[in-house]
Amino acid sequence: MATDSDGEIELEYERDDKPPLPTSLLLGLQHVAVMIVPATAVAFIVAGAVGLSAGDTAYIVQMVLLFSGVATIVQAYTVGPVGAKLPIVMGTSFTFVGAASSIGASYGLAAVFGAILVTGFVVEGLVGWQFKRIEPFFPPLVTGLVVVIIGLYLVPVGMDYVAGGVGAENYGSLTNLGLASLVLGIAVLLNLFTTGVTRLLSVLVGIVVGYATATALGVVDFAPVFQASWFAVPQPGKFGFAFEPVPIITFAFLFLVSAMETVGDMSSITAAEGRTPTHEEFRGGLFTDGLLSSLGSLAGTFPVTSFSQNAGIVNFTGVMSRHVVGVGGLILALLGLSPKVGAVVTTIPSAVFGGAVLLMVGMVAASGARLIFLHTQLDRRNMVIMAVSLGLGLGVATRPDALSGLPAAAETFFGQPVILTALTALVLNTFVPGEQSPLFDADPDETPAEAMGITSSDD
After folding, report:
1. What is the pLDDT of residues 278-306, one digit of tens each?
2. If DSSP codes are grouped into helix, strand and coil, which group holds residue 83?
3. Could you give the 3-state DSSP secondary structure of residue 144?
4. By the 8 A CB rule, do 437 and 429 touch?
5. Numbers of helices and strands, H then E, in the chain
6. Counting Cβ atoms within 10 Å, is residue 3 exposed (0-12), middle (13-18) or buried (19+)?
């Protein structure tokens, strides 16, 4: 176990401390408030892309909250080897949005949930078990590029929501643009010019104000809320299961990417103690990612993984108590048992969500860029890897028809921007000599060819 104390911050509450119950409730609510918007946004975006009804969308939102809460509790307290005993808040990840949307539209949600069921624990369980051997292949250059492309290729999705949603009769209307601008403006101003809880809850405040404004303008339909019941339990197999090779391969690779994100978040959390996670913590955390994602698919929810913004709260507040996060997980689980909560989320106009989604996906891309710039030397080798990886990823994102000549299965797989970017970065970083290559080391003054022993015929 690495116990280097460099970088340790002054903790208000340490990992195993139990703050008073009122304090724990408030701190737990803060964690919930920070993650509930992006977590439910994932469900909202995929449901919109697949064309689900308001009722089915509300159900998926409900399941997202329930399984996010259960996974958070397991991370805090563990069940056997599953869980890290760390303050890790779990929720649905933007990593899977593109694949779930396109595969759901092409193959149906049954294929999405079948792929998650098969690949969740198999892939992340294997990663957790063999983590020491796999880690060198995913340095900051590779993981950073993956995070960047996740944010960038979702920008058009955010803009569609800003305009009112694809197919909306009032697409691009002044009302929609005004609501989205209001949410975005409030969130940015509070984030940049305030401190403390106000800054941490800036996105949520923006959405609340935008929602209230939309209600006053009469563009919110509350019928789904009145029709929803107060209490309901998961419905296993609600959307069915189908096991198609291409979706399974696609989600297997995305779970590998998600595992690396979780590794980064766990390292960020333990940095508050001035150390890196132990092998047992890594293994337990990754097991939770995979197992709860597979179990969640049975009820109709998308994969759960660690949330970076909540890892940031731990470092920002100095509150590392896993019991606080456990309280937050309990709150999420209770909210997930009430369909009315999911119904309320579905009544939020697309434009209101759009202001928040556009900000969130932009921040995802910015955080990936920060990861690269902080840990990667921008020499010629790494710049070429970045250029090729992002060029191909954005290329298929903006011009998917360019792959129409490929077999259908290959078009679906390579048409995923995250997969194409990650594969390109992984292959180039592995086989081109350089500081972050797991196979070759290169002297800073050497070219990749020289590092591999390839010399010019003129020498």
Report:
1. 888 888 999 999 999 999 999 889 999 88
2. coil
3. helix
4. yes
5. 21, 2
6. exposed
Record the tokens describing residue 189, joined without a space: 């101003």
Say if CB 157 and CB 353 are below 8 A apart: no
Dump the DSSP string for 404-457.
TTS-HHHHHHHT-HHHHHHHHHHHHHHHS-STT-SS----TTS-HHHHTT---T
Quote the tokens at residue 430: 């592995």
292 to 72, 196, 302, 376, 438: CA distances (angstroms) = 10, 32, 10, 33, 31
Alpha-carbon 1 to chain mean position: 28
pTM, two decimal places: 0.71
Do residues 103 and 115 make contact, with C-beta atoms less than 8 angstroms apart? yes
Q: What is the DSSP letter of 167?
A: T
171-184: pLDDT as tens digits: 888 989 999 999 88
Q: How many CB atoms lie within 10 A of CB 319?
A: 23
CA neighbor of 308 nearest in space, from 351, 360, 346: 360
Q: Return the half-sphere exposure (C-beta side, CA atoms, 13 A cut-off) of residue 399.
A: 6
Return the residue matching tokens 């401390």. Answer: 17
DSSP letters for 332-376 = HHHHHT-HHHHHHHHTS-HHHHHHHHHHHHHHHHHHHHHHHHHH-
Backbone angles phi, psi at 262, to 5 degrees: -65, -40
Cβ count near 444 (within 10 Å): 8
The b-or-e profile of 22-40 (16+ CB within 10 A means b, else e) is ebbbebbebbbbbbbbbbb
